[in-house]
Amino acid sequence: MSKVDHTYIRRAIRLAMTGRGDVEPNPMVGCVIAKDGRIIGEGYHAKFGEAHAEPTALAACSESPAGATAYVTLEPCCHTNKKTPPCVPRLIDAKIARVVIGCLDPTPEVNGKGVAMLRQAGVEVVAPCLEAQAKQLIAPFIARVIHHRPYVTMKWAQSANGQVAGEMGRAVRITNGASDRVIHELRARCDAIAVGTNTVINDDPLLTARGVESSRDRPLLRVVLSNSLKIPTRSRLFQTAREHPLIVYTASTDSQKARELADAGVEVVNLPVRGENRFSFTDVLQDLHRREVTHLLVEPGPTLTRYFLARGQADRVWVFRSPKQIIDAQGFKTSYAPEIGYPPVGELNFDGDVLNEYLNPTSTVFYAHVQSADFQKAQGSSAAAV
Ligand SMILES: NC(=O)c1ccc[n+]([C@@H]2O[C@H](COP(=O)([O-])OP(=O)(O)OC[C@H]3O[C@@H](n4cnc5c(N)ncnc54)[C@H](OP(=O)(O)O)[C@@H]3O)[C@@H](O)[C@H]2O)c1
Predict the structure, then answer these.
(1) Ligand 1 pocket, 22 CB below 6 A?
(2) pLDDT digits (tens, 9 = 90+) for 289-346
(3) Which of 38, 45, 168, 384 has the most CB atoms around its CB within 10 Å?
(4) Distance between Cα 24 and ligand 1 center (Å)
(5) Closest-lying ligand 1 atom to the alpha carbon of residue 231
(6) Which residue, 83, 106, 137, sits at the end of a domain?
Protein backbone atom coordinates (compact mmCIF):
# COMPACT_ATOMS: atom_id res chain seq x y z
CA MET A 1 0.00 0.00 0.00
CA SER A 2 1.49 3.33 -1.03
CA LYS A 3 0.93 7.02 -0.28
CA VAL A 4 -0.77 7.23 -3.67
CA ASP A 5 -3.26 4.55 -2.56
CA HIS A 6 -4.11 6.68 0.49
CA THR A 7 -4.53 9.80 -1.64
CA TYR A 8 -6.98 8.12 -4.02
CA ILE A 9 -8.98 6.38 -1.28
CA ARG A 10 -9.25 9.76 0.48
CA ARG A 11 -10.55 11.25 -2.77
CA ALA A 12 -13.02 8.37 -3.14
CA ILE A 13 -14.29 9.01 0.42
CA ARG A 14 -14.90 12.69 -0.40
CA LEU A 15 -16.71 11.69 -3.60
CA ALA A 16 -18.85 9.18 -1.71
CA MET A 17 -20.09 11.93 0.61
CA THR A 18 -21.91 13.55 -2.31
CA GLY A 19 -24.54 10.82 -2.04
CA ARG A 20 -25.46 11.59 1.59
CA GLY A 21 -29.20 11.97 1.96
CA ASP A 22 -30.08 10.21 -1.30
CA VAL A 23 -28.52 6.75 -0.99
CA GLU A 24 -29.92 5.64 2.38
CA PRO A 25 -30.57 2.99 3.57
CA ASN A 26 -27.59 2.04 1.38
CA PRO A 27 -24.07 3.16 2.34
CA MET A 28 -22.31 6.05 0.65
CA VAL A 29 -19.64 4.68 -1.73
CA GLY A 30 -17.07 6.41 -3.94
CA CYS A 31 -14.75 5.04 -6.64
CA VAL A 32 -11.68 6.48 -8.41
CA ILE A 33 -10.04 4.71 -11.35
CA ALA A 34 -6.39 5.55 -11.98
CA LYS A 35 -3.97 4.45 -14.67
CA ASP A 36 -0.34 5.45 -15.26
CA GLY A 37 -0.53 7.93 -12.36
CA ARG A 38 -3.66 9.71 -13.67
CA ILE A 39 -7.32 9.57 -12.76
CA ILE A 40 -9.21 8.31 -15.80
CA GLY A 41 -12.66 8.00 -14.24
CA GLU A 42 -14.51 8.46 -11.00
CA GLY A 43 -18.02 8.16 -9.61
CA TYR A 44 -20.15 7.63 -6.54
CA HIS A 45 -23.40 5.96 -5.56
CA ALA A 46 -25.81 8.83 -6.12
CA LYS A 47 -29.26 7.46 -5.28
CA PHE A 48 -30.84 4.42 -3.67
CA GLY A 49 -31.80 1.88 -6.33
CA GLU A 50 -29.55 3.47 -8.96
CA ALA A 51 -26.05 2.61 -10.21
CA HIS A 52 -23.29 1.87 -7.73
CA ALA A 53 -20.02 3.80 -7.58
CA GLU A 54 -17.94 1.26 -9.56
CA PRO A 55 -20.06 1.06 -12.78
CA THR A 56 -20.51 4.85 -12.64
CA ALA A 57 -16.72 5.34 -12.47
CA LEU A 58 -16.13 2.75 -15.23
CA ALA A 59 -18.68 4.48 -17.47
CA ALA A 60 -16.95 7.82 -16.84
CA CYS A 61 -13.49 6.55 -17.90
CA SER A 62 -11.83 8.73 -20.52
CA GLU A 63 -9.86 5.75 -21.84
CA SER A 64 -9.89 1.96 -21.52
CA PRO A 65 -9.75 0.93 -17.83
CA ALA A 66 -7.91 -2.29 -18.78
CA GLY A 67 -4.88 -2.61 -16.50
CA ALA A 68 -6.00 0.26 -14.24
CA THR A 69 -6.40 0.39 -10.45
CA ALA A 70 -9.87 0.93 -8.98
CA TYR A 71 -10.01 2.63 -5.58
CA VAL A 72 -13.31 1.86 -3.84
CA THR A 73 -14.30 2.99 -0.33
CA LEU A 74 -16.30 -0.21 0.32
CA GLU A 75 -15.76 -3.82 -0.78
CA PRO A 76 -17.45 -4.24 -4.20
CA CYS A 77 -20.65 -6.25 -4.04
CA CYS A 78 -21.00 -9.76 -5.47
CA HIS A 79 -24.53 -10.70 -4.38
CA THR A 80 -27.54 -10.67 -6.64
CA ASN A 81 -30.49 -10.37 -4.22
CA LYS A 82 -30.67 -6.59 -4.59
CA LYS A 83 -31.83 -3.81 -6.90
CA THR A 84 -28.71 -3.46 -9.11
CA PRO A 85 -26.36 -6.04 -10.70
CA PRO A 86 -23.22 -6.94 -8.70
CA CYS A 87 -20.09 -4.79 -9.19
CA VAL A 88 -17.36 -7.44 -8.94
CA PRO A 89 -18.12 -8.96 -12.42
CA ARG A 90 -18.16 -5.42 -13.86
CA LEU A 91 -14.62 -4.74 -12.57
CA ILE A 92 -13.41 -8.15 -13.86
CA ASP A 93 -15.04 -7.63 -17.28
CA ALA A 94 -13.42 -4.19 -17.52
CA LYS A 95 -10.01 -5.92 -16.99
CA ILE A 96 -9.19 -3.85 -13.90
CA ALA A 97 -5.79 -5.15 -12.72
CA ARG A 98 -5.82 -3.97 -9.10
CA VAL A 99 -8.53 -3.00 -6.61
CA VAL A 100 -7.78 -1.00 -3.45
CA ILE A 101 -10.61 -1.20 -0.92
CA GLY A 102 -11.28 1.14 2.02
CA CYS A 103 -13.10 -1.42 4.17
CA LEU A 104 -14.87 -4.73 3.81
CA ASP A 105 -18.65 -4.78 3.55
CA PRO A 106 -19.88 -5.25 7.16
CA THR A 107 -22.97 -7.16 6.01
CA PRO A 108 -22.25 -10.74 7.19
CA GLU A 109 -23.49 -12.38 3.95
CA VAL A 110 -21.16 -10.23 1.81
CA ASN A 111 -18.13 -9.62 4.09
CA GLY A 112 -14.97 -10.81 2.30
CA LYS A 113 -16.78 -12.52 -0.58
CA GLY A 114 -16.23 -9.67 -3.02
CA VAL A 115 -12.49 -9.71 -2.27
CA ALA A 116 -12.35 -13.51 -2.71
CA MET A 117 -14.14 -13.35 -6.08
CA LEU A 118 -11.79 -10.65 -7.37
CA ARG A 119 -8.72 -12.62 -6.29
CA GLN A 120 -10.07 -15.79 -7.89
CA ALA A 121 -10.27 -13.87 -11.16
CA GLY A 122 -6.59 -12.90 -10.83
CA VAL A 123 -7.19 -9.29 -9.75
CA GLU A 124 -4.71 -7.94 -7.19
CA VAL A 125 -6.63 -6.74 -4.12
CA VAL A 126 -5.34 -4.40 -1.40
CA ALA A 127 -7.69 -4.25 1.59
CA PRO A 128 -8.26 -2.52 3.88
CA CYS A 129 -6.80 0.90 3.09
CA LEU A 130 -7.60 3.80 5.46
CA GLU A 131 -10.07 1.42 7.10
CA ALA A 132 -11.01 3.64 10.08
CA GLN A 133 -11.94 6.58 7.82
CA ALA A 134 -13.79 4.31 5.38
CA LYS A 135 -15.79 2.78 8.24
CA GLN A 136 -16.56 6.17 9.77
CA LEU A 137 -17.98 7.23 6.39
CA ILE A 138 -20.51 4.39 6.62
CA ALA A 139 -21.06 4.45 10.42
CA PRO A 140 -24.85 4.87 9.93
CA PHE A 141 -24.92 1.83 7.61
CA ILE A 142 -22.92 -0.22 10.13
CA ALA A 143 -25.31 0.90 12.90
CA ARG A 144 -28.15 -0.40 10.75
CA VAL A 145 -26.79 -3.74 9.52
CA ILE A 146 -24.75 -4.77 12.57
CA HIS A 147 -26.37 -3.03 15.56
CA HIS A 148 -29.92 -2.88 14.17
CA ARG A 149 -30.47 0.73 15.17
CA PRO A 150 -30.39 4.18 13.55
CA TYR A 151 -27.39 6.51 13.77
CA VAL A 152 -28.23 9.19 16.35
CA THR A 153 -27.32 12.85 15.98
CA MET A 154 -28.18 15.43 18.65
CA LYS A 155 -28.41 19.02 17.52
CA TRP A 156 -29.09 22.18 19.48
CA ALA A 157 -28.34 25.91 19.51
CA GLN A 158 -27.01 27.90 22.45
CA SER A 159 -26.30 31.53 23.27
CA ALA A 160 -22.89 32.97 24.15
CA ASN A 161 -23.64 32.27 27.83
CA GLY A 162 -24.67 28.67 27.13
CA GLN A 163 -28.45 29.09 27.34
CA VAL A 164 -30.82 27.18 25.06
CA ALA A 165 -34.10 28.82 26.12
CA GLY A 166 -35.38 32.05 27.64
CA GLU A 167 -37.16 32.99 30.83
CA MET A 168 -39.48 30.21 32.10
CA GLY A 169 -38.34 28.05 29.19
CA ARG A 170 -39.87 30.27 26.54
CA ALA A 171 -38.49 29.71 23.04
CA VAL A 172 -35.86 32.22 21.96
CA ARG A 173 -34.44 32.65 18.49
CA ILE A 174 -30.73 31.80 18.71
CA THR A 175 -29.57 30.83 15.21
CA ASN A 176 -29.47 33.17 12.21
CA GLY A 177 -30.95 32.52 8.75
CA ALA A 178 -27.77 30.91 7.38
CA SER A 179 -27.65 28.39 10.26
CA ASP A 180 -31.38 27.71 9.94
CA ARG A 181 -30.86 26.77 6.33
CA VAL A 182 -28.13 24.28 7.25
CA ILE A 183 -30.40 22.83 9.95
CA HIS A 184 -33.24 22.33 7.48
CA GLU A 185 -30.81 20.75 4.99
CA LEU A 186 -29.69 18.34 7.72
CA ARG A 187 -33.31 17.54 8.59
CA ALA A 188 -34.02 16.83 4.91
CA ARG A 189 -31.22 14.23 4.82
CA CYS A 190 -32.43 12.43 7.98
CA ASP A 191 -35.24 9.88 8.30
CA ALA A 192 -36.72 10.98 11.62
CA ILE A 193 -36.59 14.01 13.94
CA ALA A 194 -37.31 13.64 17.67
CA VAL A 195 -38.05 16.04 20.53
CA GLY A 196 -39.08 15.70 24.17
CA THR A 197 -42.35 16.69 25.84
CA ASN A 198 -41.18 20.09 27.12
CA THR A 199 -39.92 21.20 23.75
CA VAL A 200 -43.35 20.51 22.25
CA ILE A 201 -44.96 22.53 25.06
CA ASN A 202 -42.51 25.48 24.97
CA ASP A 203 -41.41 25.70 21.33
CA ASP A 204 -44.38 24.23 19.46
CA PRO A 205 -42.08 23.02 16.64
CA LEU A 206 -43.26 21.67 13.29
CA LEU A 207 -40.24 19.35 12.72
CA THR A 208 -40.31 19.44 8.93
CA ALA A 209 -37.55 20.32 6.44
CA ARG A 210 -38.56 23.67 4.98
CA GLY A 211 -37.10 25.84 2.24
CA VAL A 212 -34.64 23.24 0.97
CA GLU A 213 -34.60 21.19 -2.17
CA SER A 214 -34.76 17.47 -1.59
CA SER A 215 -35.13 14.55 -3.96
CA ARG A 216 -35.92 12.15 -1.13
CA ASP A 217 -38.50 9.44 -1.72
CA ARG A 218 -38.55 8.16 1.84
CA PRO A 219 -40.76 9.69 4.51
CA LEU A 220 -39.44 12.07 7.17
CA LEU A 221 -40.93 10.83 10.44
CA ARG A 222 -41.60 13.20 13.32
CA VAL A 223 -41.18 11.74 16.78
CA VAL A 224 -42.10 12.86 20.30
CA LEU A 225 -40.53 11.16 23.32
CA SER A 226 -43.16 11.52 26.02
CA ASN A 227 -43.52 9.16 28.94
CA SER A 228 -46.29 11.34 30.38
CA LEU A 229 -48.32 12.19 27.24
CA LYS A 230 -48.59 15.71 28.75
CA ILE A 231 -48.50 17.24 25.32
CA PRO A 232 -51.00 19.78 24.04
CA THR A 233 -53.28 18.46 21.30
CA ARG A 234 -53.51 21.99 19.88
CA SER A 235 -49.76 21.99 19.11
CA ARG A 236 -48.66 22.34 15.51
CA LEU A 237 -47.24 18.81 15.53
CA PHE A 238 -50.65 17.29 16.21
CA GLN A 239 -52.54 19.69 14.02
CA THR A 240 -50.43 18.52 11.07
CA ALA A 241 -50.32 14.80 11.93
CA ARG A 242 -52.43 13.86 8.93
CA GLU A 243 -50.05 15.61 6.48
CA HIS A 244 -46.73 14.63 8.06
CA PRO A 245 -46.39 11.34 9.96
CA LEU A 246 -46.06 11.74 13.73
CA ILE A 247 -45.17 9.01 16.23
CA VAL A 248 -45.39 9.48 19.98
CA TYR A 249 -43.45 6.99 22.11
CA THR A 250 -44.91 6.74 25.59
CA ALA A 251 -45.12 4.69 28.75
CA SER A 252 -48.34 6.40 29.79
CA THR A 253 -51.47 4.40 30.53
CA ASP A 254 -53.73 7.42 29.92
CA SER A 255 -55.90 5.72 27.32
CA GLN A 256 -58.18 8.73 26.84
CA LYS A 257 -55.25 10.97 25.87
CA ALA A 258 -53.86 8.23 23.63
CA ARG A 259 -57.24 8.00 21.87
CA GLU A 260 -57.39 11.80 21.40
CA LEU A 261 -53.98 11.68 19.75
CA ALA A 262 -54.84 8.68 17.60
CA ASP A 263 -58.04 10.46 16.46
CA ALA A 264 -55.85 13.35 15.30
CA GLY A 265 -53.82 10.93 13.14
CA VAL A 266 -50.94 10.42 15.57
CA GLU A 267 -49.43 6.96 15.95
CA VAL A 268 -49.08 6.32 19.67
CA VAL A 269 -46.56 3.58 20.47
CA ASN A 270 -46.70 2.21 23.99
CA LEU A 271 -43.37 0.96 25.27
CA PRO A 272 -42.65 -0.99 28.45
CA VAL A 273 -41.41 0.87 31.52
CA ARG A 274 -37.75 -0.04 32.05
CA GLY A 275 -37.04 1.87 35.29
CA GLU A 276 -37.53 5.41 36.65
CA ASN A 277 -41.09 5.24 35.33
CA ARG A 278 -39.72 5.59 31.79
CA PHE A 279 -39.45 3.69 28.57
CA SER A 280 -35.98 2.94 27.32
CA PHE A 281 -34.49 4.79 24.39
CA THR A 282 -33.07 1.47 23.20
CA ASP A 283 -36.66 0.31 22.59
CA VAL A 284 -37.33 3.50 20.62
CA LEU A 285 -34.27 2.84 18.45
CA GLN A 286 -35.34 -0.74 17.81
CA ASP A 287 -38.78 0.40 16.70
CA LEU A 288 -37.32 3.10 14.44
CA HIS A 289 -34.95 0.51 12.94
CA ARG A 290 -37.96 -1.62 12.02
CA ARG A 291 -39.33 1.44 10.23
CA GLU A 292 -36.10 1.67 8.17
CA VAL A 293 -34.85 4.82 9.90
CA THR A 294 -31.11 5.07 9.21
CA HIS A 295 -30.56 8.57 10.59
CA LEU A 296 -32.37 9.90 13.66
CA LEU A 297 -31.95 13.58 14.46
CA VAL A 298 -32.77 14.48 18.07
CA GLU A 299 -33.38 18.17 18.80
CA PRO A 300 -33.24 17.95 22.60
CA GLY A 301 -33.76 20.37 25.46
CA PRO A 302 -31.19 20.13 28.25
CA THR A 303 -33.07 17.29 30.01
CA LEU A 304 -32.91 14.95 27.05
CA THR A 305 -29.38 16.13 26.22
CA ARG A 306 -28.18 15.08 29.68
CA TYR A 307 -29.97 11.75 29.33
CA PHE A 308 -28.29 10.98 25.99
CA LEU A 309 -24.84 12.21 27.01
CA ALA A 310 -24.91 10.28 30.31
CA ARG A 311 -25.68 7.06 28.45
CA GLY A 312 -23.47 7.74 25.45
CA GLN A 313 -26.51 7.16 23.24
CA ALA A 314 -25.80 9.90 20.71
CA ASP A 315 -23.26 9.01 18.03
CA ARG A 316 -22.73 12.60 16.98
CA VAL A 317 -23.51 16.10 18.31
CA TRP A 318 -23.92 19.35 16.40
CA VAL A 319 -23.92 22.58 18.42
CA PHE A 320 -24.64 25.97 16.92
CA ARG A 321 -23.31 28.83 19.08
CA SER A 322 -24.31 32.43 18.75
CA PRO A 323 -21.11 34.29 19.70
CA LYS A 324 -22.71 37.52 20.99
CA GLN A 325 -26.21 36.72 22.19
CA ILE A 326 -26.68 36.73 25.99
CA ILE A 327 -29.94 35.22 27.29
CA ASP A 328 -31.22 35.87 30.77
CA ALA A 329 -33.21 32.71 31.51
CA GLN A 330 -34.22 33.29 35.12
CA GLY A 331 -36.87 30.94 36.45
CA PHE A 332 -35.98 28.07 34.13
CA LYS A 333 -33.81 25.54 35.85
CA THR A 334 -32.88 23.44 32.85
CA SER A 335 -31.91 26.21 30.44
CA TYR A 336 -28.14 25.55 30.37
CA ALA A 337 -26.69 23.30 27.69
CA PRO A 338 -24.53 20.63 29.33
CA GLU A 339 -20.83 20.16 28.59
CA ILE A 340 -20.28 17.65 25.80
CA GLY A 341 -17.01 16.19 27.04
CA TYR A 342 -15.41 15.17 23.73
CA PRO A 343 -13.29 17.28 21.37
CA PRO A 344 -14.83 18.82 18.22
CA VAL A 345 -13.88 17.37 14.84
CA GLY A 346 -14.59 20.61 13.04
CA GLU A 347 -15.86 24.15 13.15
CA LEU A 348 -17.82 26.16 10.57
CA ASN A 349 -19.01 29.74 10.53
CA PHE A 350 -22.41 30.80 9.21
CA ASP A 351 -22.66 34.60 9.14
CA GLY A 352 -21.22 34.72 12.67
CA ASP A 353 -22.90 31.62 14.14
CA VAL A 354 -20.40 28.85 14.86
CA LEU A 355 -21.19 25.19 14.27
CA ASN A 356 -19.10 22.49 15.94
CA GLU A 357 -19.35 18.81 15.15
CA TYR A 358 -18.49 16.25 17.86
CA LEU A 359 -18.24 12.46 17.48
CA ASN A 360 -18.88 10.30 20.52
CA PRO A 361 -15.69 8.21 20.93
CA THR A 362 -17.57 5.63 23.01
CA SER A 363 -20.17 5.00 20.29
CA THR A 364 -20.36 1.44 18.97
CA VAL A 365 -19.89 2.94 15.50
CA PHE A 366 -16.99 5.31 16.20
CA TYR A 367 -13.90 4.52 14.12
CA ALA A 368 -12.08 7.78 13.36
CA HIS A 369 -12.06 11.38 14.52
CA VAL A 370 -13.03 12.75 11.09
CA GLN A 371 -15.74 15.09 9.82
CA SER A 372 -18.99 13.56 8.60
CA ALA A 373 -20.57 13.83 5.16
CA ASP A 374 -23.23 16.12 6.67
CA PHE A 375 -20.50 18.40 7.98
CA GLN A 376 -18.79 18.46 4.57
CA LYS A 377 -22.14 19.38 2.99
CA ALA A 378 -22.63 22.12 5.59
CA GLN A 379 -19.16 23.38 4.68
CA GLY A 380 -20.42 23.85 1.13
CA SER A 381 -23.27 25.97 2.52
CA SER A 382 -20.78 27.86 4.70
CA ALA A 383 -18.67 28.72 1.66
CA ALA A 384 -21.80 29.79 -0.20
CA ALA A 385 -22.87 32.00 2.74
CA VAL A 386 -19.63 34.05 2.69
N1 LIG B 1 -31.87 25.86 21.66
C2 LIG B 1 -32.22 24.68 21.20
O3 LIG B 1 -31.66 24.18 20.23
C4 LIG B 1 -33.34 23.92 21.85
C5 LIG B 1 -33.74 22.68 21.33
C6 LIG B 1 -34.76 22.01 21.96
C7 LIG B 1 -35.34 22.58 23.08
N8 LIG B 1 -34.92 23.77 23.53
C9 LIG B 1 -35.53 24.37 24.73
O10 LIG B 1 -35.43 23.44 25.75
C11 LIG B 1 -36.54 23.58 26.57
C12 LIG B 1 -37.04 22.23 26.96
O13 LIG B 1 -35.98 21.55 27.57
P14 LIG B 1 -36.24 20.54 28.74
O15 LIG B 1 -34.92 20.12 29.22
O16 LIG B 1 -37.16 21.17 29.73
O17 LIG B 1 -37.07 19.40 28.04
P18 LIG B 1 -36.78 18.42 26.81
O19 LIG B 1 -35.40 17.92 26.89
O20 LIG B 1 -37.24 19.03 25.56
O21 LIG B 1 -37.79 17.29 27.14
C22 LIG B 1 -37.69 16.68 28.38
C23 LIG B 1 -38.86 15.80 28.51
O24 LIG B 1 -38.75 14.71 27.61
C25 LIG B 1 -39.42 13.60 28.12
N26 LIG B 1 -38.59 12.42 28.07
C27 LIG B 1 -38.85 11.36 27.30
N28 LIG B 1 -37.93 10.42 27.49
C29 LIG B 1 -37.09 10.91 28.39
C30 LIG B 1 -35.94 10.38 29.00
N31 LIG B 1 -35.49 9.18 28.72
N32 LIG B 1 -35.28 11.16 29.89
C33 LIG B 1 -35.73 12.37 30.19
N34 LIG B 1 -36.82 12.91 29.65
C35 LIG B 1 -37.50 12.17 28.77
C36 LIG B 1 -39.76 13.97 29.58
O37 LIG B 1 -41.14 14.24 29.59
P38 LIG B 1 -42.13 13.08 30.00
O39 LIG B 1 -42.18 13.10 31.48
O40 LIG B 1 -43.39 13.39 29.32
O41 LIG B 1 -41.50 11.85 29.49
C42 LIG B 1 -38.98 15.22 29.87
O43 LIG B 1 -39.62 16.07 30.76
C44 LIG B 1 -37.59 24.36 25.83
O45 LIG B 1 -37.86 25.51 26.56
C46 LIG B 1 -36.97 24.67 24.50
O47 LIG B 1 -37.14 26.03 24.19
C48 LIG B 1 -33.95 24.45 22.95
Answers:
(1) no
(2) 999 999 999 999 999 999 999 999 999 999 999 988 888 877 666 677 888 999 999 9
(3) 45
(4) 28
(5) 40
(6) 137
